[in-house]
Amino acid sequence: MPRLDWLDRHMDHCDTLAQWLHQQFHYEFADLPLRDWQRTFAAGQRDGQWQCLIALDGEQLLGSAALAIDDLPQRPELGPWLACVFVAPQARGRGLAERLIEGVCAHARGAGIDKLFLHTHDQQAYYARRGWIALEQFQAWGKPHWLMSRELGAHQWQPLQFRRWLGIWGRCAPLSRRKAAPTGTAPTSGHAPHRWERVTHEASDTVPGTGYAGVRD
């Protein structure tokens, strides 16, 4: 079974994963050259903009999912986010995406985060089957997208633990350096602004920092 680990421990795979994401979500990167995105993505592993959980078979990269501080320029008040979900074609159909997603959710839950958000162009049904709730539909990057959320059931917010584990939000690169600004009407919300910071990971025998063994394929 492929093992899950954090990308910042395997930075030799960072440029490859950034290229996969750039190709898969090309409409989000229309105005950002690949090399610029690769540099920004690598910096994001260090400054906490993204914490990517990756799947490896030996040293072969198979896929990813990330805990992101910000993933939608139109909604800076929302977060944190599930982002960068991708599985290489040869590794699909084995439940790997679900293992990665649940690993990120477990990691966030263990850090005291009680809700995650995501946006998706065409996988709303997939996420709905896994406990994500559709909040609204909106236009971005010339395509319809769904804004979704999932309650994680974290027991309590742990601010002291976060301050010890996390980097300061303001040190993180703004999303505008990563993605082209979406077009279309931005959705509105009554949610109050929040701030999240970077969760670091500690060693474990399963998903590092979570104790999560993964969903069986």
TrEMBL record:
Gene3D superfamilies: 3.40.630.30. Residues 194-204 have a biased composition (Basic and acidic residues). Residues 1-153 form the N-acetyltransferase domain. It holds the Pfam family Acetyltransf_1. PROSITE patterns: GNAT (PS51186). One of its GO terms (cellular component) is cytoplasm. GO terms for molecular function: acetyl-CoA binding; N-acetyltransferase activity. Residues 178-217 are annotated as: Disordered. InterPro entries: Acyl_CoA_acyltransferase (IPR016181), GNAT_dom (IPR000182), NAA80 (IPR039840). It comes from the Bacteria. PANTHER family: N-ACETYLTRANSFERASE 6 (PTHR13538), N-ALPHA-ACETYLTRANSFERASE 80 (PTHR13538:SF4). This is GNAT family N-acetyltransferase.
